[in-house]
Amino acid sequence: MTTPATTANTAARTTTATTARRRGHGEGPTGRQGSDFARLYARIDEAGLMRRRPSYYTLRLTLVGLAATGGWAAFFALGETWWQLAVAGFLGLVFGQLALAAHDLAHRQVFTRRRPSEIGGRIVGNLGIGMSYGWWMNKHTRHHANPNHEELDPDVRPDILVWSQGQASAATGLPRFIGRHQAWLFFPLLTLEGFNLHVSSVRALREAHMKQRVLEGSLLFAHLGAYLAALFTVLPPGMAFAFLFVHQAVFGVYLGSIFAPNHKGMPTLSGDDRPDFLRRQVLTSRNVRGGPLTDVLLGGLNHQIEHHLFPSMPSPNLRRARVIVRDYCGELGIGYHETGLIASWREALGHLHDVGTPLRG
């Protein structure tokens, strides 16, 4: 099965490599002057799309907070009943929306200053859903700097799944076994992703890069303690374990369904393959078409190309930026890939199937 990576890798790898200095998750002025990206940034800035949207985020965070409060209120009100599994599914979706809010806080889309962004990110991430803000920031910053680069992007390093035929050929043990049928196993494996986020967050507390580890650990364990205490106090053990699995499974599948279409099946880079910043971000990303409901469900990350070019742009502005970026890429002859949601999953799964070919031979 042919995916966009098959046809676009050549374009990505033959583009002239240049150096692009990045400053965290924002667009610092250094290195933009005179570049293709500088001219695009000027158009975006002139359109006012980098301005903060305090009213939007006040409404959004309020609604998500009310949904979380309502979900837990229903949990305590219902008590011992199997209807709690419906509450678990609802809270799985709410946790996904909280994760998207933490994502926007981390990118400084909500606040321009670092401190309130970190405070908000830790409250929503560590305390709200049990995911370490510091661990995620370290991982996600490296992903943004080098998306789909096999050695530099932690999101495409081989683990349980493999992301290129080279990784598949070198795989051993469980990844080699799963890699043969990873396209079919992808969504079932996502049911475990919620648990993986919690485990990875706790393990990261021992890593050297972690700042404020005491604070991060205190908030994480406060969440985990309160969460498990609520489940096993209100529900009998069997029902509590069922709630736990349904809640975390829905959370994991929801997050995976949001993030997988963004880059999987798009060109991958390796070694010294480093196109300039504009091409590196556009050629490795995929947009998902849709209306306002799609923006809400995917947290604006359906406009992945624009988000990677302008990480600190408030998510409600990404839709307007899309028109400017798409037209500009057309002027420069840069491939701009956009597809529907179902087609994006099909392309991602097709890529997973293709890269597992050496393992099935």
Automatic annotation (TrEMBL):
<dbReference type="GO" id="GO:0008610">
    <property type="term" value="P:lipid biosynthetic process"/>
</dbReference>
<dbReference type="Pfam" id="PF00487">
    <property type="entry name" value="FA_desaturase"/>
</dbReference>
<feature type="domain" description="Fatty acid desaturase">
    <location>
        <begin position="81"/>
        <end position="339"/>
    </location>
</feature>
<feature type="transmembrane region" description="Helical">
    <location>
        <begin position="214"/>
        <end position="235"/>
    </location>
</feature>
<keyword id="KW-0812">Transmembrane</keyword>
<feature type="compositionally biased region" description="Low complexity">
    <location>
        <begin position="1"/>
        <end position="19"/>
    </location>
</feature>
<feature type="region of interest" description="Disordered">
    <location>
        <begin position="1"/>
        <end position="34"/>
    </location>
</feature>
<keyword id="KW-1133">Transmembrane helix</keyword>
<feature type="transmembrane region" description="Helical">
    <location>
        <begin position="85"/>
        <end position="107"/>
    </location>
</feature>
<protein>
    <submittedName>
        <fullName>Acyl-CoA desaturase</fullName>
    </submittedName>
</protein>
<dbReference type="GO" id="GO:0016020">
    <property type="term" value="C:membrane"/>
</dbReference>
<dbReference type="InterPro" id="IPR012171">
    <property type="entry name" value="Fatty_acid_desaturase"/>
</dbReference>
<dbReference type="GO" id="GO:0016717">
    <property type="term" value="F:oxidoreductase activity, acting on paired donors, with oxidation of a pair of donors resulting in the reduction of molecular oxygen to two molecules of water"/>
</dbReference>
<dbReference type="InterPro" id="IPR005804">
    <property type="entry name" value="FA_desaturase_dom"/>
</dbReference>
<feature type="transmembrane region" description="Helical">
    <location>
        <begin position="241"/>
        <end position="260"/>
    </location>
</feature>
<keyword id="KW-0472">Membrane</keyword>
<feature type="transmembrane region" description="Helical">
    <location>
        <begin position="59"/>
        <end position="79"/>
    </location>
</feature>
